[in-house]
């Protein structure tokens, strides 16, 4: 049993000040669906937990303006079922609705979802010291490389780590060029969601680019980039309550019967939410056919590297992209 100090600030500024005082041992908590798990597994050992759920302004969902704005504490279920989001931005609604379970989506926040940690079994189940994991114990090695690697990444891997970035929502957000608003000890700032994630390289323990004590306050989506011709297509071992083996977030802008611009991002196959520019370039200016969709899917995996048991992800991933493109195009009025 770990003991920790619990703080319940009423404003975002109070929360950030408490984090600055608590230093590296501080953690914010929102829905708690990830953090408490990791504490029980002895992977996270915070000395101070800052419960931000009492900060009213962080719960707000705004869909009327030029950009959509989701407070970091908005529940996943509320954003997934918001009338504007589900009608005009299916890629966002579907990414949320296909994640976890209804009960979890009711508890979990859209901000906390961005910061969940990998489900790599060697990361989560080895805290007793049975298996090495560079993400959990830097420098200890990686048991997944050469081990049971069926669920591991094929894109963005390094000699130190092949753990998959587990979230669905971040993949959709990267596809629509979403941003995050932050508040930290040095004041507010914003950045693209894409810039939140690091590649593992030699330091897989550093997954995010947040500065110490920085809190996500909101997620913003430019209205122009998210549209009705979009989808989040997720393939998993069972049809609900499972993480992606491969997923694709696709947003299409059509001019007549040609693709003016395609946005494609991948989940379940990479060490971070993965934009696929090679696929996007292949599609630009073209008429979508099943053959082109599959070629674009394969282009997305051109730089992929498989291990012993996960080579199936290359073809599964390509076909997931292809199917997503067809589904999105069929949403044309
Ligand atoms: C059984 C199970 C199945 C799941 N399946 C899926 C799935 O299929 N797809 C999927 O995408 N997810 C899945 N999840 C993960 C789930 O979606 C996340 O646990 C959830 O979104 C995290 O949100 P939370 O509010 O509970 O975060 P918390 O657990 O409260 O926090 C998570 C992390 O974010 C930090 N944090 C939280 N809010 C902020 C903030 N505003 N600013 C800065 N830091 C913050 C915390 O310190 C912590 O490190 C699953 C989870 C479980 C338990």
Automatic annotation (TrEMBL):
Chain ranges of the FAD-binding PCMH-type domain: 1-226
GO MF assignments: FAD binding; oxidoreductase activity
The organism's place on the tree of life at top rank: Bacteria
UniProt KW keywords: FAD, Flavoprotein
Keyword Ribonucleoprotein among record annotations: no
SUPFAM superfamilies xrefs: CO dehydrogenase flavoprotein C-terminal domain-like, FAD-binding/transporter-associated domain-like
Protein name, entry field: Xanthine dehydrogenase family protein subunit M
Organism in which the protein naturally occurs: Falsiroseomonas algicola
């Amino acid at each position: 049993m770990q003991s920790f100090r619990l703080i319940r600030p009423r404003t975002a500024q109070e929360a950030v000040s408490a984090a600055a005082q608590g230093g590296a041992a501080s953690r914010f908590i929102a829905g708690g669906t990830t953090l408490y798990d990791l504490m029980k597994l002895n992977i996270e050992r915070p000395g101070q937990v800052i419960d931000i759920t009492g900060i009213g302004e962080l719960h707000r969902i705004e869909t009327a303006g030029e950009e959509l704005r989701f407070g970091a504490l908005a529940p996943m279920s509320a954003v997934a079922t918001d009338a504007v989001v589900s009608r005009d931005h299916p890629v966002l609604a579907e990414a949320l609705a296909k994640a976890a379970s209804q009960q979890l989506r009711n508890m979990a926040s859209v901000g906390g979802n961005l910061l969940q940690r990998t489900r790599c079994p060697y990361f989560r189940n080895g805290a007793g010291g049975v298996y090495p994991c560079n993400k959990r114990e830097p420098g200890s090695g990686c048991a997944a490389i050469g081990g049971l690697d069926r669920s591991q990444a094929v894109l963005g891997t390094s000699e130190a780590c092949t753990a998959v970035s587990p979230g669905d929502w971040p993949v959709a957000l990267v596809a629509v060029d979403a941003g995050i608003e932050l508040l930290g000890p040095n004041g507010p700032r914003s950045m693209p969601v894409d810039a939140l994630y690091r590649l593992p390289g030699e330091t897989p323990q550093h997954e995010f680019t947040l500065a110490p004590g920085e809190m996500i306050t909101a997620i913003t989506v430019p209205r122009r980039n998210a549209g009705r011709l979009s989808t989040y297509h997720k393939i998993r071992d069972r049809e609900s309550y499972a993480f992606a083996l491969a997923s694709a977030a696709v947003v299409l802008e059509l001019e007549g019967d040609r693709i003016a611009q395609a946005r494609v991002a991948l989940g379940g196959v990479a060490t971070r939410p993965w934009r696929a520019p090679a696929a996007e370039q292949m599609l630009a200016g073209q008429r979508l056919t099943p053959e082109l969709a599959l070629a674009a899917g394969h282009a997305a995996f051109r730089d992929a590297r498989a291990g012993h048991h996960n080579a199936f992800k290359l073809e599964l991933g390509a076909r997931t992209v292809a199917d997503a493109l067809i589904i999105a195009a069929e949403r044309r009025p």
